[in-house]
Amino acid sequence: MTSLAERASKTGQFLWSGWSGLAGLSVFAAFWQVAHEAYGSFILPSPLETLAAARALLGEASAWQLLLTTSSRALSGFALAGVIGTMAGCLAGFHPAILRLVQPQITLMLGVPPIAWIVLLMIWFGTGSATVTTTAAVACLPIVFLGAAEGIASRDRLLDDMALSLGMGRVGRFVRITAPQMLNRLFPILVMALGTAFKAAVMAELLANAGGIGEALAVSRSNLDVANALAWILLSVSALLAVEYGLIQPTRSELEAWRHAARPWGVKR
């Protein structure tokens, strides 16, 4: 019964924290409205016009299919980069020699523009879903790798030594001591990587004419339909926020319950 009450309280706090996000979006919408009044609807449609266009798109079954296609590609690339990047980052974090060896390759991957990866992947894989998914994965991989590696490398080794002296095994020390410290650095990186995955996926679809939101944006560009283009961007960002606050942030809240207990008002006496 207590666990249900604690979970309900945590859910309520999470939902209440959304007010700050809504306030930030309201400020952004206000500046958007000011720019609209300065330049007119042809250059920058108003927020209400964009919402109306987005509502019209959501009334079409094909729009839902395009949104689902882009989201699945972006999430597949993000998941692939998350698994490989986290595992490789943990290995490099425990072995500084590997981290020094891999660091130039990571810098190289970060320095290559996404459009260059798209061109290469179009040559290798064609213009289908494989190109879009791989582009998202390649764009996210170095970010996730660095987050996991830095999280492991900067861990408090004294805590690990203390657990070892108490007889805790290697797996137990990793799960209870090392992993929480790594996740503290990794989760913000995962949020950044998720946004990168969506941006890379839409860009790849646009350039490769591979369907999804990217192709819809290309059609809006050819028709000079700014309101429709902004509506697609709004839907893409909405899908991104839905994944972040529907999956990543709740998962972080569950795995980092110790952070709440560490606060002065959260200590159980």
Q: How does this structure look, described?
A:
It comes from Aliirhizobium cellulosilyticum. The chain is mostly helical and 269 residues long. It has one domain: MetI-like (MetI-like fold, Orthogonal Bundle). It has 12 helices and no strands. The chain has helices at residues 2-16, 18-39, 47-58, 61-94, 96-111, 114-125, 129-153, 157-165, 170-208, 212-222, 226-255, 257-262. It starts with a helix and ends in a 7-residue tail after the last helix. The model has no long low-confidence stretch (mean pLDDT 83).
Question: Could you give the topology of this structure?
Answer:
Layout: H1 2-16, H2 18-39, H3 47-58, H4 61-94, H5 96-111, H6 114-125, H7 129-153, H8 157-165, H9 170-208, H10 212-222, H11 226-255, H12 257-262
Helix pairs in contact: 3-11, 4-5, 4-7, 4-9, 4-10, 5-7, 6-7, 6-9, 7-9, 8-9, 9-10, 9-11, 10-11
Q: Give the full name of the CATH homologous superfamily.
A: MetI-like
The percent range for helix content is: over 70%
Class in CATH?
A: Mainly Alpha
According to CATH, the fold-level topology is MetI-like fold
Cα-to-Cα separation, first versus last residue: 19 Å
In short:
The protein is 86% helix and 0% strand. With 269 residues, it is mostly helical. The longest helix is centred in the last third of the chain and has 39 residues, at 170-208.
List keywords for this structure.
269 residues; single chain; MetI-like fold; 86% helix; mainly alpha; 12 helices
